[in-house]
């Protein structure tokens, strides 16, 4: 059972990443052929389940991290083609830039930002649920 404020936070985070997914699909979606088992963009009700990209974030407590706890930004590319390291890095950096741009839109009341943490980008800041 989740706390209602956590549920609301997760729903807002999902909307942010759905928006990022749409943007990245528009920018890079035609560069590679889609995995044969993956539906075309927009064919499902969930952008995580279709199109070339699955973009989201996973909470980490930050053990061994330079910055501590936060949400690691995750980018999966659903293709059987080889995606070279430079292109993968470019896509990942574009995703991180778009997330950073949209955080104040989706979470105007929070101080959240995107930082590089070793080989990853991480959303850092105020994840408190306020007064319960």
Question: What does the model show?
Answer:
By secondary structure, the protein is an alpha+beta fold. It has one domain (4-125). It is 36% helix and 21% strand. The chain has a four-stranded antiparallel sheet with strand order 1-2-4-3, with helices on one face. The longest helix is centred in the first third of the chain and has 25 residues, at 4-28. The chain starts with a helix and ends in a 7-residue tail after the last strand.
Structure classification: alpha+beta
In total, how many domains does the architecture comprise? 1
Number of strands: 4
Main sheet: which strands, in order across? 1-2-4-3
Binned, the helix content reads: 25-40%
Tell me, briefly, the overall form: globular
Percentage of residues in DSSP E strands: 15-25%
Write the layout of secondary structure elements.
Layout: H1 4-28, E1 53-60, E2 70-77, H2 85-106, E3 112-117, E4 120-125
Antiparallel strand pairs: 1-2, 2-4, 3-4
Helix pairs in contact: 1-2
Give a summary of the structure in a few sentences.
The chain contains two helices and four strands. The chain has 132 residues and is an alpha+beta fold.
Short key terms for the protein model shown above:
single chain; 132 residues; alpha+beta; 4-stranded antiparallel sheet; 2 helices; 4 strands; globular
């Amino acid at each position: 059972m989740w706390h209602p404020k956590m549920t609301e936070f997760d729903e807002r985070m999902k909307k942010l990443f759905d928006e990022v997914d749409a943007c990245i699909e528009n920018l890079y979606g035609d560069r590679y052929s889609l995995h044969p088992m993956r539906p075309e963009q927009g064919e499902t009700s969930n952008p995580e389940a279709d199109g070339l990209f699955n973009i989201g974030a996973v909470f980490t407590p930050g053990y061994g991290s330079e910055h501590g706890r936060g949400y690691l930004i995750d980018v999966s590319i659903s293709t059987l083609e080889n995606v070279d390291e430079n292109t993968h890095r470019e896509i990942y950096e574009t995703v991180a830039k778009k997330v950073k741009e949209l955080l104040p839109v989706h979470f105007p009341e929070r101080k959240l930002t995107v930082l590089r943490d070793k080989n990853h980008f991480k959303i850092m800041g105020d994840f408190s649920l306020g007064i319960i």
